[in-house]
Amino acid sequence: MSVRIGIIGCGKITERASLPNLVNYKGKAEVKALCDIDDGRAKLMASQFRLNGVDISKDWKSVVKRKDIDAIFVNTPNYLHEEVACGGAAAKKHILVEKPITISNSAAANMIKAAKKNSVLLMVEQTQRFDPVHQAAKKFIDTEKLGKINMVKGRIGHAGPEYWAGGNEGWFSDKKLSGGGALIDVGIHILDLLRWLSGKEVAEVCANIKTVEKPFPVEDNGSILMRFTDGALGHFEASWTTRPYEVMTWLYGENGKIHTSIGSEKPVIASMATVGKGKDPNSLLEDVYPEIGPGSGWGSAVHYFIDCVVKREKPFIDGEEGAKSMSVILAAYESSEKGCWVKVKY
Ligand SMILES: NC(=O)c1ccc[n+]([C@@H]2O[C@H](COP(=O)([O-])OP(=O)(O)OC[C@H]3O[C@@H](n4cnc5c(N)ncnc54)[C@H](O)[C@@H]3O)[C@@H](O)[C@H]2O)c1
User: Fold this and answer.
1) Among 17, 21, 27, 267, which lies 20 to 30 A Cα-Cα from 231?
2) For residue 289, how far is its CA from the centre of ligand 1 (angstroms)?
3) Does residue 1 register a pLDDT over 90?
4) pLDDT (tens digit, 9 = 90+) per residue, 130-179?
5) What are 56's strand-pairing partners?
6) Could you tell me the pLDDT band of residue 224, with boundaries at 50, 70 and 90?
7) What domains lie within the chain, and their CATH numbers?
8) Which of 10, 13, 59 to mutate to test the pocket of ligand 1 (most atoms within 8 A of CB)?
9) What percent of the chain has pLDDT over 70?
10) Beta strand pairing status for 122-125 and 94-98?
11) Greatest Cα-to-Cα distance within the chain, rounded to the nearest angstrom
């Protein structure tokens, strides 16, 4: 079966992630409609990816009504995710929505409810989980060789949305449209990754966020302390002033630690300590380099969603999971405003 797709929002993520990985999934996925309020973008994407005969439109409501579409990709600015996803669900289309799932707890609840009511799949594209480096780390962590994990930290940073969006940061720096700055844009990637790698849930956060460099009304950097429900501690940083791009995690357990760093020569290292009676756990037993599989985060996420639709299988990063990560980010904004620790409202 070939899954028939309508893409709503034909900007950068459609050009760089969705379309390349749909057209290369031959026989499994077929792009039927491209929609953007700027139909020039939709037409450009159709010609760039040689999608002859694809439907071009400006109105997402006409796309979700189409009988020849099984699923939609919601690739619009963040504030529109709820409206488009709920409309898609009502029209019985499966949904792959870009991160962050949306920008409020009530909007996320509406999306989850709409998907359930209409028996359609809702997946949130938290692509860091799919990066082969992070998949390798997760596989190692799941062996439980590290013992109980008691401390985690992560950092994600790039040069800012203006470098992604071709010189104009656009809606990314308008809080009403985006939900915030670096924290909700990239912080949600690293926070979601830490939640998934550790298997822990964040109970409360204390945030330190600021616009330190850019002429934007939203924060360009954030540093967030976390307390997990199991008593472990954590910390993550999100930045729009980091050059070059980086994504890093560290997880510390009773028997050793694991470090990931995208783009480095050895992107996953698990360092095991000499533990046990009479041993000195400060000394290294061995460094382990978990095997990293092929592919890319963006590609694997798109292909995984298509496979879930074919099998009617609930994605492991579903609406509830996406909403949990967003709730932590919203609590961090509240903490920054109030200047105190804030409990995450799930
Ligand atoms: N997973 C990732 O790694 C990743 C990376 C970048 C962006 N994103 C997410 O992807 C989404 C889109 O980001 P982008 O970088 O492509 O932004 P973009 O500004 O490049 O593209 C958004 C597109 O949506 C269109 N649009 C706006 N309103 C619309 C409407 N009512 N109907 C149809 N189209 C509409 C715009 O005209 C624009 O072409 C965001 O949620 C963003 O957070 C995810």
Assistant:
1) 267
2) 36
3) no
4) 999 999 999 999 999 999 999 999 999 999 999 998 778 899 999 999 99
5) 34
6) very high
7) 3-127+298-318 (3.40.50.720), 129-295+327-343 (3.30.360.10)
8) 13
9) 100
10) parallel
11) 72
Residue nearest to atom 21 of ligand 1 (CA): 11
Ligand 1 and 131: CB distance under 6 A: no
Q: Which two three-digit tokens encode residue 261?
A: 């760093």
CA separation for the pair 204, 224 (Å, rounded): 10
Range 163-170, long-range pairs (CB < 8 A, 24+ positions): 164/12, 165/11, 165/12, 166/12, 169/214, 169/216
Torsion of CA 125, 127, 132, 137, to 10 degrees: -100
Atom of ligand 1 nearest to the CA of 15: 16
Structure tokens at 75: 């690739």
Looking at the CA of residue 127, tell me the nearest atom of ligand 1: 1
With a 6 Å cutoff on the Cβ, whether 297 touches ligand 1 is no
Task: Supply the pTM of this predicted model.
Answer: 0.98
Residue with the nearest Cα to atom 20 of ligand 1?
A: 11
8 Cα to the center of ligand 1, angstroms: 9
Judge whether residue 275 has pLDDT over 90: yes
Q: Which of 37, 62, 169, 247 gets mutated to test ligand 1 (max ligand atoms within 8 A of its CB)?
A: 37
